[in-house]
Amino acid sequence: MPHPALAKHRPWLLASLVAGVSYFFVSDDPIGGAWLMLWKGAGVAFLAIYAAFRGKGVDGLLIAAVLMFGAMGDVALELSFLGGGSLFAVGHVIAIGLYLRNRREHARGSQVMTAAALLLLTPVIAGLITYPVDNWHVATAYSGVVGAMAAAAWLSRFPRYRVGAGAVMFVVSDLLIFAGEAGALPRSVTEWLIWPLYYGGQFLIATGVVQTLRKDPTGTGA
Q1: Are 204 and 193 in contact (CB under 8 A)?
Q2: Considering just the CA atoms, what is the radius of gyration of the chain in Å?
Q3: In this structure, is the dihedral angle defined by the CA atoms of residues 13, 176, 24 and 70, taken in order, positive or negative?
Q4: 142 with 178: CB under 8 angstroms?
Q5: For residue 219, is it within any domain?
Q6: Over the range 169-192, which residues count as b (16 or more CB within 10 Å of their CB) and which as e?
Q7: What is the pLDDT of residue 83?
Q8: Is the preceding peptide bond at 132 cis, omega within 30 degrees of 0?
Q9: In what way does this protein cross or attach to the membrane (predicted)?
Q10: Centroid of chain to Cα 192
Q11: What is the dihedral sign for C-alpha 166, 170, 173, 179?
Q12: Paired residues of 103 in beta bridges
């Protein structure tokens, strides 16, 4: 029999999966309007609720905030690319703080090199993809924040092949967005990849962080 607390909060994960997976199949509805915007944000919003209930201490609040800013960014992107990106950037800054609070005590050289590559190459690739499209410098600067988030996640104590991998999936999804907007890749390709990578990454991040905090023997999540 599942633990009562887990059984109580598991529906938020199920609701997230239903919303996130189903959105992929309706996202190209030309008459979606407001309901489709809310549907888009629901997948990560349910993850934020899950994290708020299941997370511990300050770190539990931080991961819930990261996810909620992501959900708001999902909705805002449908109205304003800059507005949605700004909300995501706030979430990434919070995530960087969370991961730095939870640094891995001993990182191997290969892990440090991977983190350095994420930090440095993410904005470089974004700049190469988007230049000289309008606002290419904004995309590059934003990608620097995303790369810093992924690098911090890779060096954190959270499971690297869940939280770290999820952060890398987030990086790739954003680079695909820029590639599609700049015409570097056909949208018929990028539109099939962006949402699964993005939502899958957020799901891995949410569950990886929360489950690690639940195992924290101090109960503080610090």
Answers
A1: no
A2: 17
A3: positive
A4: no
A5: no
A6: bbbbbbbbbbbbbbeebeeeebee
A7: 95
A8: yes
A9: Multi-pass membrane protein
A10: 18
A11: negative
A12: 156
Alpha helix stretches (DSSP H) within the chain: 4-26, 33-54, 57-77, 81-101, 109-130, 136-154, 165-182, 187-214
Residue at 3 is within a domain: no
Question: Is 143 within the bounds of a domain?
Answer: yes
Q: Are 140 and 151 in contact (CB under 8 A)?
A: no
Residue in this structure with the two tokens 């015409």, named with its chain if needed: 183
Task: Report the alpha-carbon distance of residue 143 to residue 139 in Å, rounded.
Answer: 6
Q: Is residue 97 part of a domain?
A: yes
Q: Contact 213/202 with Cβ under 8 angstroms?
A: no
**The pLDDT value given to residue 27:** 84
Residue 33 falls in which region: left (phi positive, over 0), alpha (psi -120 to 50) or beta: left
Query: What is residue 159's DSSP assignment?
Result: -
Which residues in the chain come in under a pLDDT of 70? 1-9, 30-32, 217-222
Prior bond to 123 cis, omega within 30? no
Does the pTM surpass 0.85? The reply is yes
Task: Give the residue from 44, 43, 45, 48 showing the smallest Cα distance to 62.
Answer: 48
Residue 69's domain comprises: 10-214
Angle, CA of 69, 125 and 151, to the nearest 5°: 50
- Distance, CA of 150 to CA of 11 (rounded, Å): 28
Nearest to 201 by CA among 97, 88, 58, 62: 88
Tally of domains within the chain: 1
With CA atoms as reference, report the closest residue to 78 among 87, 89, 90.
87
The residue type of 164 is G
CA dist., res. 192 & res. 5, Å (int): 36
